[in-house]
């Protein structure tokens, strides 16, 4: 309508702009949470509401329930530095020192051990070997050395393969890999057979 004195246009309710051609009706409900700019009629989201119709709720947090700010346009949560997860409540700070050797998963914030590091905080170092200095692989969770077949000892550098034939008759001690002769076999390679006797066929014992 027109002002009676000046003839200036006076927009009807909920209409805005130079020619009152912009419609906007304030809302604070499921379909929108905004007020209208007095001049242009543009939607102005109410506090903590975002998006085209201001239907995305986001309230910045930095406490036990979450650690994030809100994207100015969409209202999506943007985790603060070193916080991860749906509500940015998982803390993880990348490390490569005595207290840990890991990076953080971009989505979950779970620790991902750097190569050759294992354990809860990735502080157990293990690099697989198959040479003169050791013959082992690394356990996926703990990083403990697991000797390759027929290798024993602290660094899995002691070779022993069980035998029961002409060249030897022994098993291997589980920890050290030392040869343990089978019953009645003696010598360095357990290749000397001897069974003590005390009968008509002989009277002797065997030298250990």
Provide a descriptive summary of the structure in words.
Its main location: membrane. InterPro entries: DSL (IPR001774), MEGF10/SREC1/2-like (IPR042635). This is Delta-like protein. By secondary structure, this protein is an all-beta fold. The chain has four domains: 57 residues, Laminin; 33 residues, Laminin; 33 residues, Laminin (Ribbon); 48 residues, Laminin (Ribbon). The protein contains no helices and 29 strands. The strands form twelve sheets. It has a three-stranded antiparallel sheet, with no helix packed on it. A three-stranded antiparallel sheet has the order 8-9-10, with no helix packed on it. Strand 1 and strand 2 form a beta hairpin. It is rod-shaped.
Produce the secondary structure layout.
Blueprint: E1 15-16, E2 22-23, E3 27-29, E4 32-36, E5 43-45, E6 49-50, E7 56-57, E8 61-63, E9 66-70, E10 77-79, E11 83-84, E12 90-91, E13 95-97, E14 100-104, E15 111-113, E16 117-118, E17 124-125, E18 129-131, E19 134-138, E20 145-147, E21 151-152, E22 158-159, E23 163-165, E24 168-172, E25 179-181, E26 185-186, E27 192-193, E28 197-199, E29 202-204
Antiparallel strand pairs: 1-2, 3-4, 4-5, 6-7, 8-9, 9-10, 11-12, 13-14, 14-15, 16-17, 18-19, 19-20, 21-22, 23-24, 24-25, 26-27, 28-29
Produce a short descriptive summary.
This protein is mostly beta strands and 208 residues long. It has strands spanning 15-16, 22-23, 27-29, 32-36, 43-45, 49-50, 56-57, 61-63, 66-70, 77-79, 83-84, 90-91, 95-97, 100-104, 111-113, 117-118, 124-125, 129-131, 134-138, 145-147, 151-152, 158-159, 163-165, 168-172, 179-181, 185-186, 192-193, 197-199, 202-204. Helix content is 0%, strand content 41%.
């Amino acid at each position: 309508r027109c002002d009676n004195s000046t003839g200036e246009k006076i927009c009807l309710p909920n209409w805005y702009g130079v020619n009152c051609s912009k419609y906007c009706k304030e809302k604070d409900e499921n379909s929108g949470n905004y007020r209208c700019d007095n001049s242009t009629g543009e939607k102005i989201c109410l506090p903590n509401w975002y998006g085209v119709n201001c239907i995305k709720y986001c309230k910045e947090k930095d406490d036990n329930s979450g650690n994030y700010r809100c994207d100015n346009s969409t209202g999506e949560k943007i985790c603060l530095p070193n916080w991860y997860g749906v509500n940015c409540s998982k803390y993880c700070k990348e490390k490569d020192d005595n207290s840990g050797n890991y990076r953080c998963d971009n989505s979950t914030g779970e620790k991902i051990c750097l190569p050759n590091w294992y354990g809860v905080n990735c502080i157990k170092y293990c690099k697989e070997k198959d040479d003169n200095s050791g013959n082992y692989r690394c356990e996926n969770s703990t990083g403990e050395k697991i000797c390759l077949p027929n290798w024993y000892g602290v660094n899995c550098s002691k070779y022993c393969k069980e035998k029961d034939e002409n060249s030897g008759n022994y098993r291997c001690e589980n920890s050290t890999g030392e040869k343990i002769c089978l019953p009645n076999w003696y010598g360095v390679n357990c290749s000397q057979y001897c069974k003590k006797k005390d009968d008509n066929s002989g009277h002797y014992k065997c030298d250990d």
